[in-house]
Amino acid sequence: MSMNLSALAGNQRIKEQLSLQERGRGLSHAYMISGPAGAGKHTLARLLAAAMLCTGSGEKPCGQCGPCVKTAKGLHPDVILVDGPGEGKPITVDQVRQLRAGAYIRPNEGERKVYLLERADQMNPSAQNAMLKLLEEGPPYAAFLLLAENAGGLLETVRSRCELLALGPAEATADGEAQRERRQAAQELAGALERAGELELLEAAMVLDARRGREELSALLEALEGELGARAARAAGRRRLLRAVDLVKELRSAAKLNVNGGQLSGWLCAGMFDAR
Ligand SMILES: [Zn+2]
């Protein structure tokens, strides 16, 4: 069995860690999911909860079975979201005690009961100590997912009882950032190809030379081909754009054979100048 965590952006290392664990000794009963706002803490928590309750065969969570669908919609009675008593207040010691009493009531539908604890790093020491008891002595079917922006805000004793899943914002946003940058570079180069100015094209084509690595170069050429195709579909100077699309196709094959960006840039310019 392996895990299907594709709904979570980036964070390849965590995905591998969880998949290995799931195939090996199985998922743990306590995780601390840390990371800045927007890093995907809730996405990962829901995926883990669904994986624990999933009744599908094959990859977990399957995303199709009743428990998976209910968990994704926030409707599963055995996935319990715990947040502080309003106005951004953290979870209190009284709430943890109530939670503890509730945890001993068997699950409603599934094999497990999964608690998602919001902003666990902001709980005060007595709330955290009550939590610690629960992590140590809770019923075997109960699982706890502690969400935290700052893992350092949790007592070491609590942290040591949890598997740590530290989500990186960098990777996820770096992916998005790189995509935006690539799209923009493709648009600029497509514009230069469309407008037919030799100097402008020579200059714009240098972007290929500046690409580091074959993968990045291929990704840019793919974006460029898409951009040219879109322009060709609506533009007046269609012949020229179609010529550019053909050239970029050749460039993409060449890039796979390790032809470097500088050579591709020259190839693109020469091909376009010939076409006039
Ligand atoms: Zn499922």
What does it look like?
By secondary structure, the protein is an alpha/beta fold. α4 (93-103) packs parallel to α5 (125-137) and α11 runs antiparallel to α12 (261-274). The protein has two domains: 12-167, 3-Layer(aba) Sandwich (Rossmann fold), CATH 3.40.50.300; 172-274, no CATH class. It has helices spanning 12-23, 41-53, 66-73, 93-103, 125-137, 156-159, 169-195, 198-204, 206-209, 214-234, 238-256, 261-274; strands at residues 30-34, 79-82, 113-117, 142-148, 163-166. The protein has a five-stranded parallel sheet with strand order 2-3-4-1-5, sandwiched between helices. The model has no long low-confidence stretch (mean pLDDT 88). α5 (125-137) links the parallel β3 (113-117) and β4 (142-148). Zinc ion binds next to α3.
Based on CA atoms alone, the radius of gyration comes out at 26 Å
Structural classification: alpha/beta
Largest sheet: 5 strands, parallel
Overall spatial form:
elongated
CATH superfamily of the largest domain: P-loop containing nucleotide triphosphate hydrolases
- The SSE string, one letter per element, is HEHHEHEHEHEHHHHHH
Q: What's the overall average pLDDT, rounded?
A: 88
DSSP helix fraction: 55-70%
Strand content: 5-15%
CATH architecture of the largest domain: 3-Layer(aba) Sandwich
CATH class bucket of the largest domain: Alpha Beta
Count the DSSP helices: 12
Straight-line N-to-C gap: 58 Å
Count every beta strand, where a strand is a DSSP E run of 2 or more residues.
5
Low-confidence stretches: none
Write the layout of secondary structure elements.
Layout: H1 12-23, E1 30-34, H2 41-53, H3 66-73, E2 79-82, H4 93-103, E3 113-117, H5 125-137, E4 142-148, H6 156-159, E5 163-166, H7 169-195, H8 198-204, H9 206-209, H10 214-234, H11 238-256, H12 261-274
Parallel strand pairs: 1-4, 1-5, 2-3, 3-4
Helix pairs in contact: 2-3, 4-5, 7-10, 10-11, 11-12
The chain binds zinc ion.
Zinc ion binds at residues 54-56, 61-62, 64-65, 67-68.
